[in-house]
Structures are given as structure tokens and as C-alpha cells.
Amino acid sequence: MMAWEMKDGIHNVGAVDWDRRLFDELIPLPDGTSYNAYLVRGSEKTALIDTVDPTKEDELFENLERTGVDRLDYVIPNHAEQDHSGTIPKVLERYPEAKVVTNGKCKEFLIDLLHIQDDKFQVVEDGETLSLGDRTLEFIIAPWVHWPETMLTYLREDRILFSCDLFGSHLATSDKYVKDESKVLEDAKRYYAEIMMPFRKLINGHLEKLRGYDIEVIAASHGPLYDRPESIMEAYRDWTSDDVKNEVVIAYVSMHGSTERMVERFANTLIERGIRVRPFNLAGSDVGELAMALVDAATLVVGTPTVLAGPHPAAVYAAYLANALRPKTRYATVIGSYGWGGRTVDQVKSMLQNLSVEFLEPVIVKGLPRADDMRELDRLADSILKKHQEHNIIGE
Ligand code: FEO
User: What is the per-residue pLDDT across 103-141, written as a single tens digit (0 to 9) for each?
Assistant: First the structure.
């Protein structure tokens, strides 16, 4: 991407990664991503906020050259993860006069992860400011908008919030600002689900703190910029709230079709009762889609056959992931088929200990489900409906 000017003296000098399809060797990126980095020039000093993934360092330097900048006074990492900070050592080689301005924890991480020398740092505290002359940067320490060392940088005079991962979306696009809002919000929701959801309550607190700032543009370090910040702020307030939707996520796998038949019957019964259903056949599902569905579903049902006395490994993976992501799900249970015995239900339950859920009576059947078994699934659907209604979880 060419460097582009957001305002006089403020450029996005980051890079779009059109081809990347996996992050952390874990998270699917169906729409690629970008690593946004921002050059902010004041009347006296110049700062670079975040850098890029090391695979894109050449683009960063080309973009910096296009802006005509010949000196950097400060490099400001909001976050130590390598997709934003991995190019700092090269930046310091190119601009040896630059100081690395960040909080104490981020400094520790950068020393460990990138071996940056201790004397290169200028440590800042929450609320501290850095003058660039006619522009002022304010640092907002915001732990766990991915890692514990994260912070946000607010450019007061221009009312721009540089938020790094927070509010980001893994979306490679030529749109500088959000144009297709529904698409960006979908990618931002995926991003939230995979990265932010485990820290929901802390992030909700950060959102409250941000109400005190007049924000004209949110410039995250992934995806297009928001020139109507309220839409993404509102979405985040919803995702991080305690509100859940009248939805059941069914994460399932079936070996010979018995569990699959149960899932079909169960899903249809839930739909008849006005409950939205999100089935994920784990044999071929994108885990990012599953994570997104867990952002606001009231209920999670794991569907699994019994294999070697326990749940199918695909179901184990899904349960492990759900447990790690800590969604606000209120109810959970297990359905599935077994051949001759096992401890499937207990094992799935024990894998969901991080969730504050009420476990509903499971439906486990021997072999191919019979009519009585199907009626048990109807009973489970009824009890989910009752729970949702009791807690005013209604609507589609
Ligand atoms: Fe985009 Fe947590 O790094």
C-alpha cells in the first residue's frame, strides 16, 4: 500500500497483507489483514505509532520514504506482539536517534521478545502526554486488549484514537475508511471473538473510560479506519455486555450418522420453538465462525459420539476453545450417541469449567436414535426455551 495522508502531517504507513490466511498458526484469516502504522508529525517532533509484521518491513520503509520523513524522534508501540512491534529493531537501525516510548510492561516484553536495549526506552504512565510541538499524544493504559501490556494512544488536537488491536478487523481492503460497514463489523466481530472475548469485562471497563474522550477517528492497527467511531463502539459495548441472544450454538461431529440425526432433529425442534440455531459440523467448520457465534449465544450444545470412552477429539477441540475464549454463554449441555459406554458427558463438562453456565440434562443415546430418544431431544429443546424465556432471552 502507498502511504496515505489522513490529515496534514499524519500518514498511515502500514501494509496490507492480502494473502495471509492464518494468524498465530491458529486463527483463520479468510479476508487477509493489514498492519497499520501511523506517522505523526508535529511542529517539533515526529512519532511512528506501531510498526508492521516483519514480513512487511520493506513496505514500511518504502512508505516512510514516500512521506519524506528523514528523522524519527519516537517509536510508540501500543502492543508488543510481533505483527505490530516485530519491525522495531529494523526501525531503530534506520533511525538510531528514535526513542521507544511505551509503558513499563510493554518495555519488558519488547526486551524479551525482540532484545531491544534498555537504554532505548522512555517509559510512560497512564494519562501521561508526549508533546510533538503543536500536537500532543496521550497514553491510555488498557491492559488485555489482547495482551497484558497493551495501551492506546490518543492524539488530542486531531481527536484520533490509535487503538492497535482494539476495534481492529482482519480485513485486507483498499478502503482507507470503513465503507461497507456490515462487512467490517462482521470481521471486527470475528476479531473480537478470537482475540478479545476472554477479557470481555476488562474491555467493557475500557469502553467506559473512552466515553470521556472526544474521538473523531479510530485508527486501529488492523483493517480500515473508522470515521464514524460510534458504530464500532456500540458493537463492542453490545459484545462485552452481559446480554445474550436467543440462540443455540451446536458444535458437533458425527462418525456414522447417529449424532448427526440427533442434531438435525434437535435443531429443527429449536427452530420450531422460535430459537435461532447455529450448527457447526466440526469436521469442516472454520473455528473463527464458531468463535463468532459464541459471542452472544445464550446456549452451547456439544454434539459428539463416544470414541475410546470419551468425546470425539474434534469435540474436545471445540470445547477446549470455547473454554479458553470464555464467552458469556448461560447454558450448556451435551448430546450424542455411544456404542458401549464411556464418560463423554463428564469429560465435556470438565472441559468447560471456565464458563459460568448452568448445565442442562444431556441426551446420550445408545446407537442409532429411536423415537423415544428423539422425544428426549424435544424435551431438551423445551427446557432451553423455558430457560431463555425465564431470563427474558427472547426474539430472533
Ligand atoms: Fe495484532 Fe495482538 O496483535
Answer: 999 999 999 999 999 999 999 999 999 999 999 999 999
165 C-alpha vs ligand 1 centroid, how far in Å? 5
∠ at Cα 44 (39, 47), nearest 5°?
25
Q: Is the CB of 190 under 6 A from ligand 1?
A: no
Q: Is the CB of 81 under 6 A from ligand 1?
A: yes
Contact status, residue 179 vs residue 224, Cβ threshold 8 Å: yes
Angle, vertex CA 365, rays to CA 359 and CA 370, nearest 5: 125
Please tell me the CATH code under which domain 245-388 is placed. Answer: 3.40.50.360
User: Which residue spans within 189-296 are E strands per DSSP?
Assistant: 217-220, 245-252, 276-281
Look at the pTM and tell me if it is higher than 0.70: yes
Domain extents in the chain: 4-240, 245-388
Is the beta carbon of 50 within 6 A of some atom in ligand 1? Answer: no
Which DSSP category does 177 fall into?
A: B
Pick the atom of ligand 1 nearest to 221's CA. 1
Q: Is 83 in the pocket of ligand 1 (CB under 6 A)?
A: yes
Query: Is 146 near ligand 1, meaning CB less than 6 Å away?
Result: yes
pLDDT in tens, 279-305: 999 999 899 999 999 999 999 999 999
Q: In this predicted structure, what is the pLDDT of residue 395?
A: 79
Determine the distance from the C-alpha atom of residue 129 to the mean position of all C-alpha atoms in its chain, rounded to a whole number.
28
CB 84 near ligand 1, within 6 Å: yes
Q: What's the fold here for domain 4-240?
A: Metallo-beta-lactamase; Chain A (3.60.15)
